[in-house]
Amino acid sequence: MSNAPVDIEQKKNPPLAGRRTQINAGQRRIDWAVYAGWALLFILALTTFTPFYQRFFIEMMIFAILAMSMDLTLGFTGLLNLSHALFFGFNIYVLAILLTNFEWPLLLAVLAALLLTLLLALIIGYLSSRLHGIQFAMVTLAFVELIYIFVMKWRNMTGGSDGKRIAREAAEFSLGGLQINMSDTLPLLFFVSALFLASYYALRRIVNSAFGNALVAVRENEERAKFLGYNIFRLKLQAFVVSSLFSALAGVGYAFLKMYISPEYVSWTLSGDVLIMTLLGGAGTLVGPIVGAMGLVWFKDWVSSYTEHWMLIVGLLFMLVVTFMPKGVLGWLFRK
Prior knowledge:
Pfam family, one: BPD_transp_2
Distance between the termini: 38 Å
Number of domains: 1
Largest sheet: 2 strands, antiparallel
Mean pLDDT: 91
Radius of gyration: 22 Å
GO molecular function: branched-chain amino acid transmembrane transporter activity
Transmembrane segments: 32-49, 56-76, 82-99, 106-127, 133-151, 185-203, 237-257, 278-298, 310-334
Membrane topology: Multi-pass membrane protein
Number of helices: 15
Helix content: over 70%
Shape: globular
Structural class: mainly alpha
Oligomer: single chain
CATH topology: ABC transporter involved in vitamin B12 uptake, BtuC
Strand content: under 5%
Organism: Bacillus thermozeamaize
Number of strands: 4
C-alpha cells in the first residue's frame, strides 16, 4: 500500500474527470425528469384531457421548442436574436402558400418550406454574425421589420393583414393506404410530441458537445475565444442557423394546429414573447425555457379568462421574476 501523502487541496477540488462524472450524472437526472414529466402529461392527454386541452398541450410543446431553440443562441452563445420567431412564422407562410396557392403534396411542401426558411436564416445569419451585442440585435430586428412589411404588402399571396388560411384537405397524406390529416388532434399530438422529444435530445447533445463548449466560450469572452483559435463568425452563424431550424420545425407543428397564419407571427413581438419565456425559466439550461414556455402559455390562458388586461399582469410577473430571480425560475429553484 502506498504511503504517499494525501493532497488536501485534491480532496477539496476533485479531479476534472470526477467533476465531469458528477455533472453528467446530474444532467442525466434532469433529462430523465424532463422525459418523465412529458410522459405524464402525454398519458393524461391520451386518457383524460378533452380535445381542447389536448390541443392546448400541443401548443405548450410547440412554444417549448421555440424557447429551447432560442436558448441555443441567447443562453449558450450570448446572442440576442430578435429574428428568432421570424423563421417560425416565415416557415408557416411558405407552407401555407405552397399548399393553398400551388397545391403541392404535403410532405414535399413541408420539406421545401424548411429549406427556404433555412436559406433565409443563412442570409440573415451571414449578414449579422460579424456584429456584437446591441448591433446584432438591431440588425436582426431590421430584418424582421423588412419581412413583416413584405408580408403586409404581398396580399395576393399572404393575405396581408387578414392572414391566410390553410384548407383542411391540404393537410392530408396517405401512409400505407391510411389517410391521415395532420390537423386532426390525435395525429398532431403524436407528431408534435415526437418533435418535442427529438428537439430536446438533439439540442442537449449539441450543447454538451465540443461545439456547445465553443459557443459558451464565445458567450463568456469573444476576444479570449478568438485568441484560443475559435472562428467566432462561423460559430455564431452555425448557432444561428441551427436554432432557426428548430424554430422552423416548431412552425410546422403550429401550422397544423391553427391552419392559419397572420402577420403577427413574423413580427418582433413574438420573438419578444419567446425571449420572456426563455428568461422566465432560466436561460442557458434548456430545461428552463421548457418550464418558462409551458408555464407562460398556461398563465396567459388562465389570466385572460378573468381579465382583458392580462398583458399587464404578465408584464408585472416578468418584472418580478427578473428582479428577484435573475437566473430564472429554474436557477432560483436550484440556487446554492
